[in-house]
What we know:
Elements: E1 5-16, E2 19-30, E3 33-39, H1 78-102, H2 105-108, H3 112-137, H4 148-155, H5 162-171, H6 190-217, H7 225-248, H8 259-279, H9 293-329
Antiparallel strand pairs: 1-2, 2-3
Helix pairs in contact: 1-3, 1-7, 3-6, 3-7, 6-7, 6-8, 6-9, 8-9
Keywords: Membrane, Transmembrane, Transmembrane helix
Transmembrane segments: 86-108, 114-133, 197-220, 232-250, 262-287, 293-318
Region (Disordered): 162-183
Amino acid sequence: MASDKTSIGLQVNSRGISGDHVCQVGLGVRGRGVLVSMARGSHTTGTQPFREEFRLRKLGFEYDEPKHFYSCQWQWPAAVYISIRVFLSLYTTGALITVCAMNSTYTILRFLTIWTYILLALHFTVASVITITHHIKRPRSKNCSDDQQECKSRENPGFVDEEEMGRIQRKQPEGSQKDSKEQPEDKITWYMKLSWLLSDIVQVFSVVVTVIYFTAIYPTLTVTNSELFNDFNVHAVNTVFVLLDAAVCARPARVLHLVYPVGYGLVYIVFSVVVYGVSGTVIYNVLDYSQPLYPAVTVPGLALIVIPLLQLAFYGLYRLKLRISVKLYN
């Protein structure tokens, strides 16, 4: 009856492109008309309280939106995003093979540069495979290039406007809603967690490698043009690529994940100590253990200052992406 009026208030905990957030949803039903309003949670606009990043659970890799590991942050055609992923994978793999072919494998495997570049190529390859696999599995109608409006709501609940929410509600058949216990949220897979871990490490250490190379090593080098090209590939292009990766992908970022690049750095320090103890080889001047002052300054400086600042910078880039995407597509 036209005079009937029902109002329903819901608070929905969901996972958006930026992690946990709370959305306030109000439904007003008058007769046969449906009025839907949605107040978006703070995460969708990038205003989540910073202190939330320091909860213990943020150390882990639990995340309920697998699509963020194979989706573009921006509403680009799927073919464009896949092309970027494939290019990054092929380029870094080719550059790694070239560097290994032109140098003694035994010698270059001592360097932090090569360790990090191997992980970089592995990360881009894993991310490329994840992206291609999931885009092949998805129905064509779900591609961003085919249905932009549905893609908006699928990529980020914060992009769902009132008209779209109304359309979704009207399309949903009666009785289709089930108890949340019967339909548990999707979890990311182990290989998505691997991709996330690799990205945490390489995005920080690619910048570290670039800065150390151009401030402490490059000014003293005398190399041929071919060697210079390879050096730029593994010491400069690497940082360009991780910035591109961070800018276009929808993968989340967490401040406490700084422990993983710190752990990676400590593993390399132990390796350099073993190499020095066994053969007396000094891999880098800043890790010359015959002059303890150098490593005594370098190691704590990286672990306590440089790595945390870089992790914060990439987290800041992630939050900035969310704000821009809401401004562009909301």
